[in-house]
Design a protein that fits this description.
mainly alpha; 22 helices
């Protein structure tokens, strides 16, 4: 059911490329004539990842993140640009080949995430039918249709990394033997090179596993292997920039952007009008004039001055990010609150469900012990969101948690044993097995 639904939704979304008149876009989300929301071409042409990938193919090295000749960079982590560079090289620079390859992979990752959700539901729940879990997951994809099927960025790769992290912790027993500890360390290093926040979650959860199993030596080996996996990239950055940059260089800009370029702590579409990627913006001119390292140093100074001038304002922004990430949906485009109020309010009704589910799980888990898998899912949710809450957040950053959020809701319904809620979900158990 899940793979078929994902493929059908993706095909439907990309049929928008067959539209010949702007009026025809009313048949595709957001169902408004003249508005084409399909931006799957984005990763093939318009992201830092794509620009760096093209620079690699052109022999410039890891450089030019904004499509301008700005020189070497560590603005983005290396895995995705390297993958895109391979696709550009294989296709002789054919952007359409890159786009459609990524779309297919994204479909596979979404389908795989759904199958992972079903497997964990079968393993840990007693009252929720897998068929009901499949329907909930599909509903979550439909609720996030744009990010699921009309947008290509790094979400699919971050989602894949989180899937592997969860599957490894639930089934792999990463610190059980020396061999598994080595494999787990390599995975941790690669996840960090995909996204440092996934690496942070990996590290914290690995530490918890090591403490719980008292596997101190194997934990040390895992950490060593992860560090060795990161070493080539870190050495490259030190060689090029003369300083230690473990994964990416733009943390200072993220802090500055959240503290100095917007009225609250949440990134909105107008904020990106000032992004260094925009050739005419003040930030772009400053980046080009100073170079990447001096630019991020200046952003750190500006953020530090703003923080020192009003520490309470920083805490207010952290609180706003926490609420935006967990309880109150804030659309990326502020205009949607007036142009698409029903869509926004539907999102606001569903957005807090995973966090409420987490609270229910923790509270009911005091009296009724939670399954190990449920603790893993809770840990991934909290550890992944924590850095975004502290630094910078908008809805795209939360999308890779889609499988985790669905699992939290299902676990909470199952664990709370509220029969009036669970009855519709358990009544379909008879026909759920074929899934």
């Amino acid at each position: 059911m899940v793979p078929v639904a994902v493929v059908v939704c993706s095909v439907y979304a990309n049929l928008s490329y067959t539209v010949t008149t702007s009026a025809g876009y009313r048949f595709f989300p957001p169902f408004e004539a003249g508005i084409n929301a399909n931006e799957n071409q984005h990763l093939g042409a318009g992201t830092e990842y794509a620009h760096i990938g093209k620079a690699l193919v052109q022999g410039k090295g890891f450089a030019d993140p904004f499509g301008r000749p700005t020189g070497p960079t560590a603005w983005m982590p290396p895995i995705l640009p390297g993958f895109l560079a391979a696709l550009f090289w294989l296709s002789n620079g054919n952007g359409n080949f890159v786009v459609w390859t990524v779309v297919v992979i994204q479909v596979l990752v979404l389908a795989g995430t759904g199958l992972l959700v079903l497997a964990l539901v079968r393993q840990t729940t007693s009252r929720i039918a897998p068929a009901a879990a499949a329907l909930i997951f599909i509903a979550a994809l439909l609720g996030d249709f744009r990010l699921s099927f009309q947008w290509t960025h790094d979400c699919w790769l971050v989602l894949l990394s989180l899937d592997l992290l969860i599957a490894g912790l639930c089934w792999f027993r990463p610190l059980h033997t020396w061999k598994t500890a080595i494999v787990w360390g390599v995975l941790g290093g690669l996840c960090t090179l995909v996204n440092p926040i996934v690496g942070f979650a990996w590290g914290a959860l690995s530490l918890m596993v090591g403490i719980g199993e008292r596997a101190w030596r194997r934990l040390a080996v895992t950490a060593l292997v992860a560090g060795l996996t990161l070493t080539p990239w870190t050495v490259r950055n030190f060689w090029v920039f003369g300083r230690l940059i473990t994964v990416k260089s733009n943390l200072a800009y993220e802090l500055y952007q959240s503290q100095c370029l917007q009225p609250d702590g949440l990134i909105r579409r107008p904020t990106f009008g000032r992004y260094p990627g925009g050739g005419g913006s003040r930030e772009a001119r400053e980046y080009d004039a100073l170079g990447e390292i001096k630019y991020v140093d200046r952003k750190w100074e500006q953020f530090s001055r703003a923080l020192g001038a009003d520490p309470a304002d920083f805490l207010d922004r952290v609180a706003a990010r926490f609420i935006g990430a967990t309880l109150w949906y804030v659309p990326f485009d502020p205009a949607h609150e007036t142009t698409r109020p029903w869509t926004v309010w539907c999102s606001r009704l569903t957005h807090p469900l995973p966090f409420f589910a987490l609270v229910i799980l923790v509270l009911t888990g005091i009296a009724d012990r939670l399954h190990r898998t449920q603790w893993v899912v809770i840990g991934v949710y909290l550890l992944y969101l924590l850095p975004y809450v502290l630094v910078s957040y908008y809805e795209r950053y939360g999308f890779p948690l889609i499988g985790v959020k669905v699992l939290l809701v299902i676990f909470a319904v199952d664990h709370s044993k509220i029969s009036r809620i669970t009855w519709p979900l358990t009544s379909v158990r008879r026909w759920s097995r074929p899934l």
